[in-house]
User: Which sequence fits this backbone?
């Protein structure tokens, strides 16, 4: 069985992010087709949406559904689907750089969530500037600003956490860093 | 909920208020649960038992932010699918199925970072219970030292509950844990609890570990090297016997000077009584019964404390589970498993902790067989009796090679006890289970660790305290009762003159009184039973009084002897003669009689506390009755054999 465990999506109680190994699924975005067990849940309204991220599958519940009741079925279906990577068909129209959007969303989640919380608890703050081709640009401010040690710590922290969700991340750069 | 700061007055461990949040600690044995418990409560724990069973219960309190919390240390378990009675308790408490034990409001799951992979299955089972849960990771320092890695924060994110690192024995992280506990109501809970299906659960655990960047610790290098020797079939067994030898050597040699001090203290005390208490009967009661009797037994406190200290140390360092592993093969001959060995080893201190330790055995048959065998192990209560009798039997100057003959006889008695215990276990196992159902034997070999001094001391103190309590209750009552029996009925001066005793001669008087006491009548009453063993009525009284607790034998003979010649009780015993009957005039303590007595004490179940604990552990009077009958009968037969053989050898 493919290892996976669910994590909540900040601000979206109806979504769960199932962390999976980075190389299991050959696609990202909204798949055009998913293997039968998962498709059945989409068909009967248990799930409203399935999205694939570089190291996760996000599932959104249909209206009137709840994780305690429907979660176990979603888990079992997802396990079956993960064992069949060929059953996942990529999106017809990739659109304009879905990778950048995914990276941007992932970085925003973390800055709104745990990493940002950590920065604020130390009297600092992080602003997300941009995400493009695997590079995330942020601006560190507050007490962090100007302290070289804090800067390195904060950058490493964001980088490490972000890489778990987005293994293709190349680096996090700080727009406010003094030229070296 | 009024979380004001004025309720500090009513703290204390006494009343358990219903609105005080209850926090329970769960985790596998050796995960460091007790360290966390001790650091949280600061040793203010109350020990007791769970209703209906004798599984020890630890409850303490602590305060944070002006509010009191009750914290309970549940018995260690590897899983919530219980196989032993201890584990059953944990599950029942978590499910709120135990009467008078409220379901906890919040849980602390204590996991050892070095065995996290195995522990996650347990964490999953606990999270599935749906109570507010915080995971406490211990031994993170050791994980790092052994080149392992764990991102504690990421682990918390993956589990969906708070995760805190705590190095219990150093106290790191305890402050943060207290603060976290204060906000237990708002702890995040997993949106979707971990799966119950074993395959899905494995996949879940695997994924959580990967997310937390877990790299398991290299095998502890020291542990690995030491285990290569200690678990070696030949070397390990040799080391085991050396450890056991050192164990008993330490107990006997190191305790001797300490015992001297205790003896000196009681000598001083009885001197005080003799000098200041002039009421004859009160002086007799205090001097003979209380100081002579109970004091005579308390002399053994240093030895007992040392014994418990060493057991706690061996346990804490991690040797005990190795010894159990080594002994598994030997125990298998008796049809038992290695864990039964730990119970039997504890019985060297006292059968009671031994019998209580059988709780770790999952099979009911193994438990009963071990319980039936435990009273045969040479417990510390036999020690005073053996020391006294061997002192009478063997001259201290006799040597066999480099060893003193006294010590060898003592070792022989220990060996006799151990061998008999194994045989008894084998017999009861055969009788008990003909189907031969094999229970899984799962034992962890924890890495060798320096135990937290506090935990060792607490374990030692808990055990020693029960011995001291026994002295102050059972033994005290028996000795005082015996003193009454030995001094009643009161003899008038006229009666004594009629019997040709000078009422002015104190020694003659007390000798006459004892000889015509109720105790003497009682001793003569049972004479037909013990005559073949060569006991006279005074020994009979000693044996009968020892029925409640073995040490009383020493106290009784001490009282009898002191009545005849208070200055030299030891010589009195040596030269004691039969007062009447066919052997009148001959010495009582000849080699055959002493041998018979020694063997009698080796086998007989002369300990009401043991009978009581058997009743509590098995829940029926059947097993204590069986144990009492078979042990007493065996004792008589073996004592008769010992006497006959010693006589034939020309003793």
Assistant:
């Amino acid at each position: 069985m493919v290892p996976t465990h669910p994590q909540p999506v900040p601000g979206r109680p109806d979504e769960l992010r199932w962390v999976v190994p980075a190389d299991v699924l050959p696609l990202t975005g909204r798949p055009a087709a998913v293997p039968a067990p998962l498709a059945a849940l989409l068909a009967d309204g248990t799930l409203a949406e399935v999205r694939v991220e570089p190291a996760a599958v996000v599932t959104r519940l249909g209206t009137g559904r709840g994780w305690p009741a429907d979660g176990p079925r979603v888990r079992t279906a997802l396990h079956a689907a993960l064992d069949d990577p060929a059953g996942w068909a990529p999106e017809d129209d990739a659109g304009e750089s879905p990778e950048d959007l995914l990276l941007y969303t992932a970085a925003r989640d973390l800055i709104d969530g745990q990493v940002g919380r950590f920065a604020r608890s130390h009297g600092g703050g992080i602003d997300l500037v941009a995400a493009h081709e695997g590079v995330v640009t942020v601006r560190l401010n507050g007490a962090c600003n100007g302290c070289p040690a804090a800067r390195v710590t904060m950058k490493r922290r964001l980088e490490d956490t972000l890489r778990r969700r987005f293994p293709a991340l190349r680096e996090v750069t700080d727009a406010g860093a003094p030229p070296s | 909920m009024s979380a004001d700061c004025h309720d500090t007055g009513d703290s204390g461990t006494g009343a358990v208020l219903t609105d005080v949040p209850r926090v329970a600690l769960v985790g596998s044995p050796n995960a460091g649960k007790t360290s966390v418990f001790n650091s949280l409560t600061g040793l203010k724990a109350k020990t007791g038992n769970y209703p209906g069973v004798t599984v020890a219960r630890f409850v303490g309190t602590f305060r944070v932010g002006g509010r009191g919390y009750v914290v309970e240390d549940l018995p260690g378990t590897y899983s919530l699918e219980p196989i032993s009675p201890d584990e059953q308790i944990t599950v029942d408490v978590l499910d709120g199925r135990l009467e008078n034990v409220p379901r906890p409001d919040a849980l602390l799951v204590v996991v050892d970072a070095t065995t996290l992979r195995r522990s996650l299955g347990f964490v999953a089972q606990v999270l599935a219970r749906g109570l507010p849960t915080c995971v406490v990771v211990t031994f993170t320092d050791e994980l790092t030292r052994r080149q392992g890695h764990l991102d504690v924060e990421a682990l918390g994110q993956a589990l969906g509950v708070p995760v805190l690192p705590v190095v219990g024995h150093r106290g790191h992280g305890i402050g943060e844990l207290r603060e976290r506990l204060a906000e237990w109501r708002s702890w995040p809970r997993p949106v979707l609890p971990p799966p119950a299906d074993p395959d899905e659960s494995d996949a879940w655990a695997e994924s959580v570990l990967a997310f937390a960047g877990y790299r398991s610790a290299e095998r502890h290098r020291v542990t690995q090297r030491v285990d290569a020797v200690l678990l070696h079939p030949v070397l390990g067994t040799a080391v085991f016997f050396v450890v056991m030898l050192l164990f008993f050597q330490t107990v006997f040699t190191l305790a001797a000077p300490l015992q001297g001090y205790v003896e000196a203290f009681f000598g001083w005390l009885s001197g005080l009584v003799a000098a200041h208490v002039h009421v004859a009967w009160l002086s007799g009661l205090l001097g003979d019964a209380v100081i002579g009797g109970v004091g005579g037994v308390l002399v053994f406190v240093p030895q007992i404390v040392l014994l418990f200290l060493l057991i706690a140390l061996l346990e804490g360092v991690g040797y005990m589970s190795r010894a159990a592993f080594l002994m598994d093969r030997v125990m298998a001959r008796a049809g038992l498993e290695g864990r039964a060995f730990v119970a039997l080893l504890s019985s060297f201190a006292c059968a009671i902790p031994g019998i209580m330790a059988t709780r770790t055995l999952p099979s009911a048959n193994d438990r009963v067989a071990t319980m039936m065998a435990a009273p045969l192990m040479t417990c510390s209560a036999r020690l005073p009796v053996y020391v006294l009798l061997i002192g009478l039997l063997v001259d201290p100057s006799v040597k066999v090679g480099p060893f003193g003959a006294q010590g060898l006889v003592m070792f022989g008695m220990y060996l006799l006890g151990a061998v008999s215990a194994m045989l008894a276990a084998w017999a009861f196992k055969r009788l008990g289970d003909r189907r031969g159902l094999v229970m899984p034997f799962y034992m962890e070999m924890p890495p060798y660790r320096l135990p937290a001094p506090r935990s060792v001391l607490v374990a030692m103190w808990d055990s020693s305290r029960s011995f001291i309590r026994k002295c102050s209750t059972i033994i005290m009552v028996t000795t005082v009762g015996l003193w009454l029996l030995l001094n009643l009925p009161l003899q008038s001066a006229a009666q004594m003159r009629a019997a040709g005793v000078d009422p002015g001669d104190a020694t003659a008087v007390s000798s006459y009184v004892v000889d015509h006491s109720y105790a003497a009548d009682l001793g003569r009453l049972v004479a037909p039973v013990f005559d073949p063993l060569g006991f006279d009525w005074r020994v009979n009284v000693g044996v009968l009084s020892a029925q409640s607790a073995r040490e009383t034998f020493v106290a009784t003979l001490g009282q009898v002897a002191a009545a005849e010649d208070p200055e030299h009780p030891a010589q009195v015993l040596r030269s004691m003669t039969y007062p009447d009957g066919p052997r009148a005039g001959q010495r009582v303590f000849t080699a055959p009689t002493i041998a018979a007595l020694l063997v009698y004490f080796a086998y007989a179940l002369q300990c009401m506390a043991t009978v009581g604990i058997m009743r509590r552990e098995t829940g029926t009077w059947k097993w204590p009755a069986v144990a009492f009958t078979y042990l007493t009968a065996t004792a008589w037969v073996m004592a008769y054999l010992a006497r006959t053989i010693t006589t034939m050898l020309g003793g």
Notes: Chain A touches chain B at residues 1-8, 13, 16, 19-21, 67-68, 71-72, 75-76, 79, 114, 161, 164 (CB under 8 Å). The beta strands of chain A are 5-9, 12-19, 47-53, 56-61, 124-132, 135-142, 171-174. The mean pLDDT of chain A is 83. Residues 148-165 of chain A form the longest helix (18 residues).
